[in-house]
Amino acid sequence: MQNALSVVVDSLPYLLQGSFLTAGIVVFAMFLGLFIGIFMSVGLVYGNRYIRNILTVYVWIFRGVPVVVLLFLFYFGLFSFLGLNFSAFATVSIVLGMTTGAYQANIFKGAILSLPQGQFKAASALGMSDIQAIKSIVLPQILRLSIPAWSNEYSIILKDSALAFVIGAPEIMARTQFVASRTYQHLSLYITAGIIYFLLTWAGVIGLRKLEQYVRIPGYSQHGNQ
Amino acid sequence: MMTDKKPILRVKNITKSFGDVTILNSVSIELAKGDIKILIGPSGGGKSTFLQCINCLVMPDSGEIELDNERIQFTRKQDIYRLRQEVGMIFQDFNLFDHLTALGNITVPLRKVKKMSKKEAEQRARLELEQVGLSDKESLYPAQLSGGQKQRVAIARALAMDPKILLLDEPTSALDPTLIGEVINVIKGLAVKGMTMIMATHQISLIHNLADEILFMEDGRIVEQGPPDALLAAGNKSKSQGFCDLLNELSEVEG
Amino acid sequence: MELSPFYQDLFTSLNRGLLMSIALIVPSAVGGVLIGITAGAVRTYGNRFFRTMANCYAAIFRGTPLVIQLFVLYFGLPNLGIYLTPYLAAVLGFTLCSAAYQSEYVRGALLSIKSGQYLGAQALGFTTFQTIVWIILPQAFRRAIHGCGNEIIYLIKYSSLAFIVTCIELTGAGKTVATEYFRFTEVFSIIGLYYLALVSLAIIILKKIEHRLFIPGFGHH
Ligand SMILES: Nc1ncnc2c1ncn2[C@@H]1O[C@H](COP(=O)(O)OP(=O)(O)OP(=O)(O)O)[C@@H](O)[C@H]1O
Ligand SMILES: [Mg+2]
User: Fold this and answer.
1) Residues B129-184: pLDDT tens digits?
2) Spatial CB neighbours of C4, under 8 Å, sequence gap ≥ 6
């Protein structure tokens, strides 16, 4: 017991350093996903049949194949096959970004479809161009509606980032495994790692809930709007 | 109409508080067979709470309820289930079971509470649906019915249980003005057949045409009570008179 | 047509792995749903003590990565003298984690049932038990089924983590072959197709069930 505790205390700074990498993966993946998601959602709703089909296949693949399989495929397979020399960190960020992109595409697609038709028409009637209407009328509404789903994606990506250790990116999980394999204090170390993830997850979720309340417009919510 | 004067329902000195707010303060009512009593009064006066106390959906803090001269023990579940089977209730917002068709809404209590066979229950349910003019809607779900149709199904469901008394809590106030008529007609039909009823309503035509007695509730008490001719007589300065005048004005503004 | 030794090896391993994956998924999905319903009901209707306990359980399992849960079960518990087989550790981890997520959908479904539904049933003389069985459960089931189905899809994907605790299922089996022949792109693409097939099959079945149980007013969006 004594030993377990001192191992945890000694290795805590080392484990916590991993959270920078974890945070980096999550932030990069979330924004890549946001970018992919927004473009794909527009394509899924307004694109022609070919574009829609291609995007649908993309969504199907990234929602159906497990993250570990994608990590192995990209890191040991595709990237080297294509002559790309991506680090483990870059690979994890890209794979998670592409995965959450597929989910976010569906989130934004749902939000676009739930917008009352009148919004776009009213903007056009006021003389706005399509781009202006999307930028200043449609997007602000969609992004607000999407925060709860986004918070869900955040928590999924954060937890999935723990899989980075299978290809050796030195984030929290990999560091924990490294210390555990040397000290044999598996239980206490993994529980410690669990606590770190737990705090990161709920801190982000609660933060996004705060953001949702902050940007909230009275009477405007996913429910009130359906 | 014949009314034999022996009361079938006696409700005595019902008191109910939520926290330290007294919502009902010693309210009593007696009904003989065929009686129609109408509760009116300002919002928050306690009408809904009183009606729900009568079939113990809200447990009274004190008071007595006697059905057919049998005292209901509030602590005995069996007594309460029996009371609820014999006292039907119609809600303002219908409370149809959303996962069951119109027919299913009527058969499920017949089968589960009255233990009827499926066939018997369906026969009975169809009969009741016909009575409220909804024979062609039996396989529709609540989400597919209009408000007026929902309320008529709710009435059919209550009647299928053969209640001795029907409690109606503002049965028309959640409805579009255009749909109120169909529900009023069904309720008037019940009155003609001699159904015993206590109804909270602000529908002038129901008050005028149906009430044997009007009870005016305010702040958890019945502050006035009497036959409509007396209470609503022209020039009478009763509270009920004033209240009905107000309702009249409102309905004129709307109409 | 004769397959090359590589492909013969690959498909033999993958098919064996597939069986193990299914042996992991089915009990975990069933256990996850059952425990999830229980936990969801406790989180909604339980007294304060049990509600808090169930909420903590759900928050912990939803707030930490599944890999960590598996590592605690398989590598951590031996520190306390408890040794689980890889298969048991995986199924236990999957079940507990899945149930925590399921409880969230169950709770949402139960909360979404309007109080009028209880009142309506009580007014007709239903007992509490009858109300739950005939009114509440059929409605909650329909409200929860879409979310619970999605959770089972996640479970199928996350069953790929079992190989990390040395329970050799689809991914683990493929990884061995890939390392042996050093042909990662092909092997992991084919594994991906296996999962796509599993997931798509599950989606079709779940859609069928949802369709079967569809009632106007209870649709998903
Ligand atoms: N469960 C409850 N907890 C606390 N207060 C309640 C509860 N139910 C009703 N009340 C209060 O009791 C009072 C009487 O309510 P009730 O619904 O019986 O009035 P009402 O006469 O039916 O009014 P309305 O015409 O608006 O339907 C109200 O002030 C209400 O806020
Ligand atoms: Mg009321």
Assistant:
1) 999 999 999 999 999 999 999 999 999 999 999 999 999 999 999 888 888 999 99
2) none
Q: Is A187 on the interface with C (CB under 8 A)?
A: yes
pLDDT, one tens digit per residue, over B39-77 is 999 999 999 999 999 999 999 999 999 999 999 999 998
pLDDT at A226: 29
The runs of H, that is alpha helices, within B170-238 are: 177-192, 204-210, 228-231
pLDDT digits (tens, 9 = 90+) for B63-117: 999 999 999 999 998 899 999 999 999 999 999 999 999 999 999 999 999 999 9
CATH of the domain at B128: 3.40.50.300
For residues C123 and C131, give the distance between their C-alpha atoms in angstroms, rounded to a whole number.
11
The residue to which tokens 């508080």 are assigned: B17
Residue A221's pLDDT is 56
Q: Is the CB of B48 inside a 6 Å radius of any atom of ligand 1? A: yes
Distance, CA B174 to ligand 2 centroid (Å)? Answer: 11
The answer, for A92 touching chain C at a CB cutoff of 8 Å, is no
Check residue C117 and give its pLDDT: 93
Q: Determine the distance separating the centroid of ligand 2 and the alpha carbon of C92, expressed in angstroms.
A: 51
| DSSP one-letter string for B45-101 | SSHHHHHHHHTTSS--SEEEEEETTEEPPTT-HHHHHHHHHHEEEE-TT----TTS-
Which residues fall within 8 angstroms of residue B145, CB to CB, at 6 or more apart? B96, B102, B137, B153
Domain presence at residue B231: yes
- Is B139 part of any domain? yes
Q: What domains, with CATH codes, occur in chain A?
A: 2-225 (1.10.3720.10)
Classified as helix, coil or strand, B196 is strand
In three-state secondary structure terms, C119 is: helix
Element at B21 (helix H, strand E): strand B21-32
User: Any idea where the domains of chain C sit in the sequence?
Assistant: 5-212
The vertex-A54 CA angle with A50 and A60, nearest 5°, equals 140
Report the pLDDT value the prediction gives residue C152, as an integer from 0 to 100: 94
CB B46 near ligand 1, within 6 Å: yes
Question: pLDDT at position B1, please?
Answer: 46
Residue B165: helix, strand or coil by DSSP? strand
User: How many C-beta atoms lie closer than 10 Å to residue B20's C-beta?
Assistant: 5
Q: Hey, what amino acid is at A86?
A: F
End-to-end, the C-alpha distance of chain C in Å comes to: 49
ipTM computed for the complex: 0.90
Whether residue B82 lies inside any domain: the answer is: no
Whole-structure pTM value: 0.84
From residue A4, how far is each of A7, A15, A88, B204 by CA, in Å? 5, 15, 30, 79
Q: Average pLDDT for residues A71-94, to the nearest whole number?
A: 88
Predicted confidence at residue B254, as pLDDT, reads: 56
Radius of gyration of chain A (CA): 21
Chain A residues whose CB is inside 8 A of the C98 CB are none
Range of the domain at B107: 36-47+91-254
| CATH architecture label of C5-212 | Orthogonal Bundle (1.10)
Distance of CA B198 from the midpoint of ligand 2 (Å): 13
Q: Higher pLDDT residue, C51 or C217?
A: C51
**Which 8-state DSSP code applies to residue B136?**
G
Q: What is the mean pLDDT of residues A177-194?
A: 89
Query: What is the spatial distance between Cα C94 and Cα A114, in angstroms, rounded to a whole number?
Result: 35
Residue B65 domain flag: no
How close B95 gets to chain C, by Cα (Å)?
A: 5
Six token digits for residue A188: 């206490």
Interface B–C counts its CB contacts (< 8 A) at 75
User: What is residue A225's predicted lDDT score, i.e. its pLDDT?
Assistant: 35
